[in-house]
Amino acid sequence: MIEIMSPAELVRARETGALVADILQTLKGRITVGTNLLEIDQWAKAMILEAGAVSCYVDYAPSFGRGPFGHYICTSVNDAVLHGLPHNYTVADGDLLSLDLAVSLGGVVADSAISFTVGSQSKQDADMIAVTERALKAGIAAARPGARVGDISHAIGTVLSAAGYPVNTEFGGHGVGSTMHQDPHITNTGRPGRGYKLRPGLLLALEPWIMADTDELVTDADGWTLRSATGCRTAHSEHTIAITEDGAEIMTLPR
C-alpha cells in the first residue's frame, strides 16, 4: 500500500515527526554510562503516552520478527544495528547506541533513528555515524517530485560505498502514513531512474545504516535484534520526509 497524504494529514505528520525527534533528543540527553536499556524503554513509553501518541512497536509482529515486539523503542548497542530489543543491559563507556522510534499521533506515523556514543567516542564510531548522516542528507536531496525511488537509493549508496562500507539491501527505507511500514521499499543502494515515481504528499522514512566490515546480518536468540555477522560496530540514521511540490521536507526535526 502507498498512501498520499492530504494537506491536513501533512500537518499532523509534522506534529508526529516533531514528537519523535523531541523524544529521541530527550533520551540522548538523559542517557549516561550506567543507564539500563529497560530504563530507556520506560522513559520512551512515558513520553509517548503523555503526548497522547501510540507506539508502533508494542504490538508489532511482522513475519521477520518473533512478535509482538513488546517494547516502545529499539535500542541497538555496538554490533547490533536494527530492531534492538530492550533488555537488562547497562550501557558502558564507549558503547555505540542506536535509538529507533516510530509513533502514531492523530493517525499519522513518523519514524526516526539516531546513533551516538555514550561517554568516550572513538574516531571509528564518529566516522561511521557521520557517514550515515551524510548518506541520509544525500538521499533527502535526491527526493523530489518526478524522481524515482532508485534515485534516492543511488544517492545513499554512493555515499556509503565511497566511504568504504559494504551495503546490505535486506532492510532499508520505506513508505509511512497511517501505518509504520508501507511501500515503496527503499534500499540503501540502487540504480537511478528505477522504481516508483515520487509524488507530492508521499511520506518516506529514509534510513541508511552500515556495519564496519560486512553486509551480513545475524539474528539474536530474542528473534528481533539484528547484529553484524562479524561482531563489528554499526551505525544507523533515519528521518521521515514528505515529498513537496519542490523537493522534500524533513518531518522528524526537534522543535
Automatic annotation (TrEMBL):
Record: residues binding a divalent metal cation 1: D100, D111, E238
Highest taxon, organism lineage: Bacteria
Function recorded in the entry: Removes the N-terminal methionine from nascent proteins. The N-terminal methionine is often cleaved when the second residue in the primary sequence is small and uncharged (Met-Ala-, Cys, Gly, Pro, Ser, Thr, or Val). Requires deformylation of the N(alpha)-formylated initiator methionine before it can be hydrolyzed.
Gene source species: Arthrobacter citreus
Entry GO MF terms: initiator methionyl aminopeptidase activity
Binding site for a divalent metal cation 2: D111, H174, E207, E238
Pfam family, one: Peptidase_M24
Cofactor requirement: Co(2+); Zn(2+); Mn(2+); Fe(2+)
HAMAP family linked: MetAP_1
SUPFAM superfamilies (UniProt xref): Creatinase/aminopeptidase
Bound cofactor: record note: Binds 2 divalent metal cations per subunit. Has a high-affinity and a low affinity metal-binding site. The true nature of the physiological cofactor is under debate. The enzyme is active with cobalt, zinc, manganese or divalent iron ions. Most likely, methionine aminopeptidases function as mononuclear Fe(2+)-metalloproteases under physiological conditions, and the catalytically relevant metal-binding site has been assigned to the histidine-containing high-affinity site.
Boundaries of every Peptidase M24 domain copy: 14-245
Binding site for substrate: H83, H181
Catalytic activity as recorded in UniProt: Release of N-terminal amino acids, preferentially methionine, from peptides and arylamides
PANTHER family: METHIONINE AMINOPEPTIDASE (PTHR43330)
Quaternary state and interactors: Monomer.
The keyword Transmembrane helix is annotated on this UniProt entry: no
InterPro entries membership: Creatinase/aminopeptidase-like, Pept_M24, Pept_M24_MAP, Pept_M24A_MAP1
Keyword line: Aminopeptidase, Hydrolase, Metal-binding, Protease
EC number: 3.4.11.18
Protein name, as recorded: Methionine aminopeptidase
Family of this protein: Belongs to the peptidase M24A family. Methionine aminopeptidase type 1 subfamily.
Family matches, as CDD domains: MetAP1
Lineage, top ranks: Bacteria, Bacillati, Actinomycetota, Actinomycetes, Micrococcales
